[in-house]
Write a structure and sequence with these properties.
Elements: E1 2-4, E2 10-19, E3 25-31, E4 36-38, H1 63-75, H2 78-81, E5 87-91, E6 94-95, E7 101-102, E8 105-112, H3 119-122, E9 146-151, E10 158-162, E11 168-174, E12 182-184, E13 187-190, E14 195-200, E15 214-215, E16 223-229, E17 236-237, E18 241-244, E19 249-255, E20 263-270, E21 276-283, E22 288-294, E23 302-312, E24 320-322, E25 326-332, E26 349-350, E27 396-397, E28 411-413
Parallel strand pairs: 16-24, 16-28, 18-25
Antiparallel strand pairs: 1-2, 2-3, 2-28, 3-13, 4-12, 5-8, 6-7, 9-10, 10-11, 14-16, 14-27, 15-21, 17-19, 19-22, 19-26, 20-21, 20-23, 23-24, 23-25
Length: 424
């Protein structure tokens, strides 16, 4: 995902694994760049500047952890915070191929939301760290590398960093070095159950409002953004089933749509297997009402799921938010099933005027493609894994889609950073 740092620039998070660093369901993410600096050596106790730990290293009482707490509290929205898992993890003793030894700590992460990597994690080929260059950030705020949470085994006054060449450096800084700054390159575990959709970081969602949904195109990139579920949204539709022929329109009644900038009622046509085939905004500006959806002319006969939800779209590389999608069973056939005179059970099918695919509310253009049918039907994507180069499906539903091949470092985008308080 992408964070917007204090300068307003995009910062990528690398997906290190398709599970958390504790082996549970989720995604393990690591900042692509330095996101800030701790004010002083990370290994100082907050209560005793410049003094060695009298009883050994205590991560819970370090400046780095304090920076991470402030980052979480001040830089993420409430919705983004809800997508970050609390991590409880102990670190085993670890020795690198070069013979550097790091101490064990059975309770070093005790519910942390944002944290630094361990030496073992930063040395893991499974996470994509194959050489020194692979450990380097995409930027350098100040020279001196970035801090790890691991302590050397033979001396609890030695702080470990990944230096400017990507090597582990364990003897340069001692805990007694009171005013040594350190770059911060944090990590966290993402809760997949908090994610509604994943889409390309730029241009991944159709613009405009109208009855015509756009076919989900091919995407060969590797940068993505998130749409997070917003539990505070109370959106519902008045229909649970509909039928229509290709080119005809159905009308969906809804209530509870969000209001304000970037707020839409969104619809997606999904295959029975769950792949998203078409996406588009069908209404805007009304908390409740009705919206027309034109069935794509090139959509094959069969059974589909129409998902309709309230969505806040915030632009490229920004986190979007959505209500729980409301599912409507959609039957597409040249010979339409008989309509319910009350408009229930069929979605209130409205064929509309010939050539328009149905009347669009508020006088808006019923066809955003200049009167042409939507693009060819996208091939079904495999949503049991994360999108890889060449996948046909570029917007994926729910947690099952959020999995990355181990070590592939797939780039997701989507979290915003507001300016951190206290100058951090």
């Amino acid at each position: 995902m992408t964070l917007y740092a204090q300068e307003g620039e995009a910062v990528k998070w690398k997906v290190l694994d398709d599970q958390t660093n504790t082996g549970e369901e989720g995604l393990f993410l690591f900042a692509d760049k330095h996101l800030g600096q701790s004010s002083g050596s990370v290994y100082h106790r907050l209560s005793s500047w410049g003094e060695p730990f009298p009883e050994g290293f205590d991560y819970s009482d370090t400046l780095y952890r304090n920076w991470c707490v402030m980052f979480y509290e001040n830089s993420l929205t409430a919705g983004e915070q809800s997508a970050v898992l609390a991590t409880i993890k102990g670190d085993q003793a670890y020795e690198t191929e070069d013979g550097l030894r790091f101490a064990a700590d059975s309770g070093i992460l005790s519910g942390e939301k944002i944290f630094c990597l361990s030496a073992e994690e930063t040395d893991s080929r499974e996470y994509g760290f194959t050489d020194n260059a692979s450990r380097l950030p995409s930027n350098v705020i100040t020279r001196g590398g970035y801090w790890l949470r691991s302590l050397t085994e033979d001396d609890n006054t030695k702080a470990c960093i990944v230096d400017d060449s990507g090597q582990f450096l364990v003897n340069a800084y001692t805990i007694a070095s009171a005013q040594i700054g350190g770059n911060v390159r944090p990590a966290f575990n993402l809760d997949p159950d908090a994610v509604a959709l994943i889409s390309p970081a730029t241009g991944g969602k159709a613009d405009g409002v109208g009855s015509t949904l756009e076919a989900v195109p091919d995407y060969s990139g590797n940068e993505w953004k998130l749409t997070l579920l917003d539990e505070n949204r109370s959106f519902s539709v008045k229909t649970d089933a509909a039928s229509a022929a290709p080119g005809e329109a159905i009308t969906v009644g809804y209530t509870g749509a969000g209001q304000g900038a970037g707020e839409y009622v969104t619809a997606m046509i999904c295959s029975e297997e769950g792949s998203i085939l078409y996406y588009g905004h069908i209404a805007q500006g009304s908390e409740s009402g009705e919206a027309a959806i034109t069935i794509p002319r090139d959509l094959a006969e069969g059974n589909y799921t129409l998902q309709v939800f309230s969505e806040q779209c915030n632009g490229d590389r920004m986190t979007d938010y959505a209500s729980d999608p409301q599912e409507i069973t959609l039957s597409v056939s040249e010979e339409k099933e008989p309509e319910d005179p009350e408009g229930e059970g069929t979605g209130g099918v409205d064929p509309g005027e010939e050539g328009t695919g149905g009347k669009e509310p508020d006088g808006e253009d019923p066809d955003r493609n200049g009167g042409q049918p939507a693009g060819g039907k996208a091939e079904d994507g495999d949503i049991s894994r994360a999108p890889q180069t060449g996948d046909k499906t570029t917007v994926f539903p729910y947690a099952a889609a959020l999995a990355a091949s181990s070590g592939a470092m797939l780039l997701l985008t989507g979290i915003r950073i507001k300016k951190n308080k206290r100058g951090q």
